Amino acid sequence: MLEGKIERQGFLDIIQLLTMSRKTGRLEITGAAEGSLFFSKGELLDCQMDKLAGDEAFIELFILVSGNFKFHEEKVSVEQRITKSLTDLLMAASKQATQWDAACQELPFEDAALVLAPVDPNSEKQFNFNALGWAVASHINGRCSFAEIARLLEQPKTKVAITIVALKSQGLITTEDEGSAILRTVFRKTTDVLYHLIDTRLKSRVKDRVLTEFNRWTFSKGFDIRMLDGAGVINNLHYDMPLDDKIIAYRQALEQLYEAAQTGLNRNELQDHMAELYEQLNKNERKCVSDYGLNKFIPTRGKGRREEADFWQTPPDSMGPDGIIPR
């Protein structure tokens, strides 16, 4: 079986190998970007990535690919949704990849909330919008990042980021401050892990109660954070909320999620998952964990067995039926 690690350049090599050897089957990509490509006798028929398909899915996967690949030789029966030749497809993907790399320099924090900048009504400056630009601008509310806007619009994340940079260059958009953006990133990465554990380790009936109880609790606290079945944790805290208040909101929301995840895992197993997350954080994100006391939830590997006596010594009978401590 053909399998291994994959990056952007390696992705191109594998596509060419499967084409030249006239393979039939499915190329599965897992990791930072996940998707599948379908081949019949070396011809690329379709690509699927989240809600994207065909040419757009291929271009997005080409740009964001990072992780592992595995080729399954199997019968393929999918609709042909790749419309370009492989050469034209790779040229389009390479061009958009260059634009994406440039956009990442302008938008270094993927999770930063986007804000519409004030415009002088007396200015005679002309703004250049395309249809996607108007759609993106309509979703900028001081809460959503470009990745969240892409999800809402069901558009490729890279294309939305490139559009946002174009709007930013015209002075129409600004972003959340760096400290808040890093904190939002750490919160998103942590909730991604916790939500996955809740989603996969809790029985359906218990999970439904956990989601309901969590959303009821966050609403009562005034935190615009929700847990949606199939969509994960949605963070809509406004960009101009004071940083100290954001820290409180994120810490308390993480505590609720942590306790909910504990109903499906033992303490050591849960801490192992979170210690693995810590190892994947960059230097600034680790500093954020330390500065804001989030190591209560994200321990280092070496410290994963000793932390939070006050947190873990909560008497079991003080918890609600879903593992969430009543407030």
Brief write-up:
The protein has 327 residues and is an alpha+beta fold.
Secondary structure: elements and pairs:
Blueprint lengths: L2 E4 L1 H13 L4 E7 L3 E6 L2 E7 L2 E2 H11 L2 E7 L12 H21 L7 E3 L14 H7 L8 H8 L3 H13 L3 E3 L2 H24 L2 H18 L3 E4 L3 E4 L7 H20 L4 H14 L2 H9 L17 H4 L15
Helix pairs in contact: 2-3, 3-6, 4-6, 5-6, 7-9, 7-11
User: Helix/strand/pairing class, anyone?
Assistant: alpha+beta
The run of helices and strands is EHEEEEHEHEHHHEHHEEHHHH
Going across the major beta sheet, what is the strand order? 1-6-2-3-4-5
The total of helices stands at: 12
Relative helix content:
40-55%
* Unreliable sequence segments: 303-327
Question: What is the first-to-last residue Cα distance?
Answer: 53 Å
Radius of gyration: 22 Å
Reported for the largest beta sheet, the result is: 6 strands, antiparallel
Please count the beta strands (DSSP E, at least 2 residues each): 10
Strand residues, percent = 5-15%
* Quaternary status: single chain
- How many discrete structural domains? 3
Global geometry? globular
Mean pLDDT, all residues = 88
Description of the structure:
The structure is a single chain. By secondary structure, this protein is an alpha+beta fold. The protein folds into three domains: 3-94, no CATH class; 107-175, Winged helix-like DNA-binding domain superfamily/Winged helix DNA-binding domain (Arc Repressor Mutant, subunit A, Orthogonal Bundle); 178-318. The protein has twelve helices and ten strands. The radius of gyration is 22 Å and the shape is globular. Residues 303-327 have low confidence and may be disordered.
